[in-house]
Amino acid sequence: MTTVQSPPVPPTAIRPKVVARTGLYAVLAANAAVVTLFAVQAGFASNALVVLGRFAGLYAALLMAFQLLLVARLPWLDRRIGMDRLTNWHRWTGFGLLWTLLGHVVFITFGYARSSSMDPVSQLVDLAETVEGVFRAVVALGLILVIGGVSARWARRRLAYETWHFIHLYAYVAVVLAFTHQVAAGTTFTTSSAATAYWYTLWGVALGSVFLGRLALPLWRNRRHQLRVEAVVPESDNVVSVYITGRDLDRLPARAGQFFLWRFLTRDRWWQANPFSLSAAPDGRSLRLTAKAAGDGSAGLRHLKPGTRVFAEGPYGAFTAMHRTRPEAVLVAGGVGVTPIRALLEELHGHAVVIYRVGSDRDAVLYDELRDLAHLKGAELHLVTGPPVPDRLAPGELLRLVPDIADRDVFLCGPPPMMNAVLGSLRALDVPRTQIHFERFSLAG
User: Fold this and answer.
1) Taking a C-beta distance cutoff of 8 angstroms, is the pair 302, 269 a contact?
2) Spatial CB neighbours of 11, under 8 Å, sequence gap ≥ 6
3) How many domains does the chain have?
4) C-alpha span between 106 and 378 (Å, rounded)
5) Is the peptide bond prior to 390 cis by the omega test (within 30 degrees of 0)?
6) Which residue, 423, 433, 409, is CA-closest to 9?
7) Looking at the structure, do residues 100 and 140 belong to the same domain, yes or no?
8) Among 8, 66, 183, 394, which is most buried by a count of CB atoms within 10 Å?
9) Do 308 and 376 sit in the same domain of this protein?
10) Which residues contact 22 (CB under 8 A, 6 or more apart)?
């Protein structure tokens, strides 16, 4: 299979990201309207606090189902929006869910307490002891409070990803407990078989999406492609490329700029999943990743043996030529962020300017490949070296290197400080946001 050459999207076409984002909003709004309709048909309680609590509970459950869709890693959504943005939306939706659930508990408890003359704490205990499903809901709320706590930035930075991920898995327990509480105790569902059928369908789709995207599809693809390490090639003292081969790779829907979650099935590494971008455009025969030794996972790559089985989840990411809006492009790479940039250059049509930002010449990983590829494609290549201060990619310097930068697509990948600086420069140069493409490779948001 030859590398796919994708022309830019015609100016009149609706951008894929807009289509996907609008579709998600429309799905959420339509389901909110349906939930509201069923709740109104079920009638209102005489106590306004109880009514508010019931609506808060219904909308919280709807947000919970939406959360599942955001992290299901469905290919159609991921290619158009990107895992980083979907994960970030999931995170912020999670905080909205947390406050909505707290509102549900507070309104319901105080509403019933007003009718029974109990104090709120006694009322909550009484509901948990006497109403089917309420105790399960209290447990679910406790789990969500814990998950919300460890997802706060100050806590997330102090936890290993594996620890954070293990705690986060309890969200699925909370989902099941909350769902059974609603169908058992929710007035909206106990009074309407149509509402109950809708609710089962909604949650079936949400949970089915997670099962499909995160379990069934990866298992099927790995069984089909039988990935193995073909070769391990050191690129420098701390950078290594791993070549992966397998069956029917021409049928693997990977594109330049995307990444996989790689598991190398050795005795000491099978449980680790590390996100590494493709450093060459897929050619239907092999895949290549290039990584810098930044931790135990990436440092151990140079010790892999040819023939090692590989389990790969993906491809993921919207950092592809699918999102082009202009016929010409600027590719800005920092450090080992050159890997998806190098792959993108191989696939892109039209004139491109490549800016490679590194501390020194010896840090320019894959530079020889990039130089040869730029020559072949008729692209300009600028190697920018030096310490981070003064900023070598300030607005004036970018404009000097690419005078027509505002008329080009800009693809950006590198360390977070460098990316933030370049994004600031692009804003100062009035480059339209629709022409700026980047991803932050963070699994936890």
Assistant:
1) no
2) 325
3) 3
4) 64
5) yes
6) 409
7) yes
8) 66
9) no
10) none
